[in-house]
Structures are given as structure tokens and as C-alpha cells.
Specification:
The chain is α+β, with helices and mostly antiparallel strands and about 325 residues long. The protein has eleven helices and eleven strands. The strands form two sheets. The protein has a five-stranded antiparallel β-sheet. A five-stranded mixed beta barrel has the order 7-8-9-11-10.
Amino acid sequence: MVEQINFVFDGKLASAHRMEFYESARFQYSASRLLVKLDNFRRTGTFPAKISSKNNHDIQVRAFQQGSFGIEILVPVLLAAGPAVFETSISAMFSYVIDKVFKSADDDAIREALQTQNRLIEAFDNAIQGRDDTITRTLDMLREEMARERVLTEETKELYERLLAEQERRLLLQAERDVLRRMTEDQRADLVTMSAPLLKEMNVPLRRSASHISVSSVVDGRRRRLLHADKRMTDEVDTAIVDRNITAIDINVVQFNKENGWGKFRNDEWDGLSSFSVPAEILDDIRRDLVAAMRVNRVSVDCYFVRSAAMVPLRIIVIDVNAAEDQNL
């Protein structure tokens, strides 16, 4: 039994079933390293610095077929491969690191994609913008447009694919939260630090070979979308380092999307609005606390700082919400 991970590039050369050899090779090298490391992590709780025949567990690639430009990876399922530390699919592990390093669509990104269609941007501004379930409401609006056979621009179609992938990815992570919660904080930090630069390599084929990349999986005959990204999204991936120690800080929660766990906050020591995220496996536990935090001016959170390679704070990962105070920061 195998699990499939599908990478599909489209647009530019990929629409004619071609890619630049160097760009394709760069992507495949990084993707293969990432999948092998994730496979080792779910088996042992660690991943190798170097990949050899001893830690490469028969992950295979299927012959290319006509399409935009698709690469189909076959990964042995754990039941067939023996016991594991984290008994979950490679799709869940891959989704976990995608969710940590790719920024979820916020109101600004959705609004920008809808700008080309006046009717949709007006509906978004009037009934959707600023709510905590913008992804579901935007998807419902776009499905209704398609059901009525109304023409969608390319930007709107791409937005639909992006939001659908985000929604399906989060549902998969929530379904696997009991397994994912067993990771130690050091393991979580190691995964993000290892995965970010490899995931960023997805931007290489988006220079000249393709406009977008879509990642999906097939497990037990069920297909799930995991990611739909363009070059801007991949360029925004931070080659980040996650702190090993928890920091308690006071923040003013300005925005919070209860569906995807991403939000924005203010703090005197951070310039302007900064981003935070909540791991999918604990989102159910602290969702209500963060929604309540938006009604006061300050709340204390336990978090991990995500820093650049130069150790500059980029954003935070919130893992707990403490006492709220109704006063200004």
C-alpha cells in the first residue's frame, strides 16, 4: 500500500508539458530531501542530516505523464512499513510544515484577488471582510458564482484554489491533532527550521517554468488539497528559526481568524501590525480565548518567536492565552 503526494505545476512552460531542466531538478532535489526527512521523523522522531540508503525508505517517483507538469510521489504507508513514533500519514506531516511556514490568506490577500471583479469585491466588503470565518464565506460566495456559471477572472480562480487547499489542509491537521500533539517543543522547532528552506525552493520553478504549484495527496483513495501557491507566496516563506524557549508577552489582538489560526497583533516592542499563528493541533483548545481577547486591549500569551537567520523577530506562534486586562498597551 502506498500514499501519493502529487506536485503539479501550471502556467508558462508547464502548460505545454515542459519545464526548465535546472528549475525542475532544483525543485525535485529539495522536495525529495524534505519527504525523506519527514518520513524519517514520523518513524523515529528525528531526521537525518545526511540521506543514505539506510534512511531512504523506498519513496519512489512515477513516470511523468502529459498534463500541465505533474510529479507523482509514492510513499509506503506506515502499516506496511512497520511501527512508528508518530503513526500518521506523510500528508499530515507535509501539511504540518506547510501550515507553519506558509502564511494563510488574510483579508488583504483575498481583497486583492477579488479587485478585478466589482460585484465580488463589493460583496466581500459588505458581508465578509473582518469576520472570523472569511475563508468559508469567501469559498461559499465563489461556489455560488460558479454554480450560476458566471465568469471568474484568473485571479479569482487562483484565490478559490488557494482557499480550498488551506481549508482542506487545516481539516486534515485537526483530524490528526492527537498524534501531532505528542511532539516535543524541540521537535516542532526542528521541523520548522529544517523544512522552511526546502519549502522555499518551490519558488525556483516559478521563476520561468510555471506560474503556480499545487500539492495534493491521495490516501485510501481520497484526494486532499494541501497547497496552492504562486511565486509571491513562496518568496514570502521565511527561512526561519523557531526559538526553543517559551516567551510570555502582552499583545493587543487586532485580528484573528478562528478558521485558520492566523491573526495580527500590536506590541510596543514590535513595529506596526505583526502576525501570529496558532498550531492546528491546539487551535480548538485556545480558539475561544483568542476570540475573547479581541474584546479587551491587552492579553498575555505564551509563544515562540520565529526569527530570521539574523535572529530578527518575524512573527510569533501562540501556544497559550493567559489573563486578559482591559487596558491600553
